[in-house]
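Suppose a colleague, Dr. K., hands you the sequence of a protein chain of 334 amino acids and asks what its three-dimensional shape might be. Before reaching for any lab equipment, you can write down a predicted structure in token form. Begin with the sequence itself:
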Amino acid sequence: MTSCQRKDKDKYITIEGYAQGGIYSVTLNLKGVKEKPEDIRNAIQDILDEIDGTLSGYNKNSLLSRFNAGEDIVPNQLFMDAYDIGYQIYDETGGVVDVACAPLFDMWGFGFKTGEMPTDDEVEIARRNCGLGRCYDASDKFAAEKINAQDLLVENEPVLPQLNYNAIAQGYSCDLVAEYLYSIGVKDMLVNIGEIYCDGKNPTGQPWTVGIDKPVDGNDELGAQIQGVFKVPSGPHGVVTSGNYRKFYIKDGKKYAHTIDPRTGYPVDHSLLSATVIAENAMLADAYATYCMVMGLEASKEFFTGRTDMEACLIYDQDGEFKTWCTPGFILED
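The predicted structure, expressed as tokens, is then:
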């Protein structure tokens, strides 16, 4: 009798845990799902543990950390897929989103190491030694049983490539968890791992509603100060906000944001405070939110104008006031 009720009625649960330096939350409808909640929780944790053991630069034993250290690794499917995705995004954004720029983030203090204020010469040297443009697209290179950073270089160079997936990792994590949920029959879900993937309806039977944090410097508590809320369009979508109001520091009166332009090697300095992007999956939304934060307001507006595959909300500073620009399908409510 209980089994029949579960098939016929909505039954939403929320699973929470710790991953990627914060709390994750997955809300899903068990209607039509045979797996027990504890089994779903364990499966989600297994996925996030595999991501940590593969792509985390903070886990010194991960495949990524060992690759960046120049060791031979046996790449798993996740490592290979992430590299392929990173290369695809690099091509699509013209090098604006580049996962092979770890030393630049490190030297500015926003990567896997504590950096100090670099000189212009140090920035230029690091910039020349970074970038996926130095590397093969790895479709044939990963055919070998083992691989190291030297194997990916197009030319024999002394400085090895180092990868940093922070621009896409959380969005990609959401997509992988959602992929598992689909595989067990879940139709209504909201996966929140710092970034968001959602599909179906919320527990009230309405579209999922997401809030955008006000981009005030030091606004570190999610949902504490809201710029506005919006209803996510029907169907599967990734929703990601990138901004420079949480990760930054001030030195000699100047603000240094965590968004680094790989083309110049320097933190960005423009009026765009945050970019929220809705795309078909969270990895793409993550990548293009980062793209906006590198390119700035006007270039981002130009990019999204006329596109039908993504929606965006840009919050920017104009003479000390917050202003918003949204694509037609992005309705922001107070």
